[in-house]
Amino acid sequence: MSPRGSNSAVPDVAVGLLFVSLASLITGIIFLVLELAKY
Amino acid sequence: MTFLGKVLVVVHLVLSVMFMAFAGAVYTSQTNWRKSAETAIANASKAKSTADTEKAALQSQIDDAIKERDGLKNDKEALAGQVSALTADNARLDSDNKVLKTSFDTQRTVAELNSQEAEERVKESQIQRSRNVELNKSRDDTVTELNTLRDKQFGIELQLAQARVKNEQMLREIATMRAFLASNNLPTDIRRMTVAASPPPELDGEVLEARKETKGSRVFVEISVGSDDGLVVGHTLTVYRGDKYLGRVRLEDVRPDISVAVVIETAPNSVIQKDDHVTTRF
Q1: Strand, helix or coil at B208?
Q2: Model-level pTM?
Q3: Please, which residues have CB within 8 angstroms of residue B91's CB and are 6 or more apart in sequence?
């Protein structure tokens, strides 16, 4: 764990999980758009 | 990051993954309802048009059926009339059939009788044929016998001709002899000649019956002697009763045991009766 106020940010696991969550949301949205595009 | 922040991150992650999975599942397996609706609409319109066509066809069929029903009604009425006419014809034909059946029975009976008559005629013909054969045979025999008899007849006729010639010759000789006898005062009657040639034997008899001739005056007597005793026609017998002479009789018909004689001489005041005696001794 990096000390607070330091210039070099060290990403932790939670951030990575947040990115994965975002990617999942974007993928689900794409699926829904593709499905709605049929109508 | 606090612990709560980490928990919320994890929850956020889980929900995001679930959302993605749900969206993917919908994308991959969800039915295209619009296309289905269009397809269903097209099918419905097609089915409607088909139904309209079939409806029109059925309507036309209904019209045809109605027309046909009307025609059938008319036909039914016509057929009912024909049925009544045919019923009447049937009744008439039944009566004709009964008459014809009766006539048929009669004709069959007549035919059977004719058949029996024909059989009897055949039998009669066979009998007549056999009789004809027998008659032909008998005719042949008769013809043969007739020829034989004709031959005999010819011989007999020949003998008859010879006998006639001989008879004429003998008649001439007899006439010559009678003339010769007459010229010498001898009897020419054959009875007198027979009596002269054979005088009656000595015998006695009785008068069985004496009867006077119905038309005439001659008296006939029946006596109990005849040809068995040697008498012939022409012989004369003396009739007596006891010692009394009654007369003489001459035989006219001689039978074996009796004779009939005619009275040729009667004593005065005497009548020949039954049970008088006759004799040739005097």
Answers
A1: strand
A2: 0.34
A3: none
